[in-house]
User: What shape does this take?
Amino acid sequence: MQPVCSGQKPPRTMPQITCQGTTVNDLQKLLDEINQNLSETEDRGRVADYIPELAKQDSRKFGMAIATVGGQTFATGDADEAFSIQSISKVFALTMALGRVGDALWKRVGREPSGTAFNSIVQLEYEKGIPRNPFINAGAIVTTDIVLAGHKPKETIGEMLRFVRSLADDDAIFIDEDVARSETETGFRNVALANYMRAFGNLRNPVDQVLGVYFHQCAIAMSCVDLARAGLFLANKGVNPLAGVRIVPLRRVRRINAIMMTCGHYDGSGEFAFSVGLPGKSGVGGGILAIVPDVASIAVWSPGLDENGNSKLGTVALEKLVTKMGWNVFGA
Ligand code: GLN
Assistant: This one.
């Protein structure tokens, strides 16, 4: 049984809660408790195996980090270990693509939940090559095409890596070439999606170039601590508080967060909103980035996935944290 929290609702910016008579004024303690509680869990879901290199991940890994807009970072478990962010990279690619073409992006990608798997092809036929949203694979391949326009693939990959490094303020973030190669060798569905969209005229660059960039962006490897920091601009009205630099206007942050809430977990997006209640983006590496607007950015990593390809334990951990902190955006 989980302890039932009582007492005063915490101010949204102060990590202080009262739980069963004990004041937990330390997010660190709470994170360690969650880690400890979950460490015994047997059913951790299944590690992604359709990308062979990801199948090598150890399903017992668990890390979680919180970066607050005030500049503090809290971490537990394997939060300093780099993992493959996979589809979480779609948030950064969308941010860059919006920076390139602004609202013109919405002519080529929708912003409605798909209700289908992340790599589904059926909807594309009905909707004439315009993907439902930028977080399913087809939509992310279009945003990558937009970022690539006018550049060489290598330059674009470098630019994406530099963007994420600067957000997290960590030059150690890297691209795992083994993961990129593994997906290049086996990513037949993505090849199909890209060719299909190219046939509809919704890809402007050669398919192999777009996918080359896409596979490399998905292969960015970083830790929970880095990821939580990199997401801070989404929690802080568009400004990265670490560097004091505006990344995007507030209006755009609201929109990115809205799409994370409605589409960030594919066909599990409704369930994630229901149980966690935060904008979030998952990746098949087992990571989730979740945003508490105006308060904090959270990253969690546990490689075992549920049936929708979202981290099983990661979701449970977020639900526990959010419930205790009163961080659910639908009401504390
Ligand atoms: N690189 C993966 C793919 O394209 C990303 C999918 C994901 O993380 N959901 O299949």
About this structure: Residues 1-24 have pLDDT under 50 and may be disordered. The two ends are 20 Å apart (CA to CA). Residues 153-168 form the longest helix (16 residues).
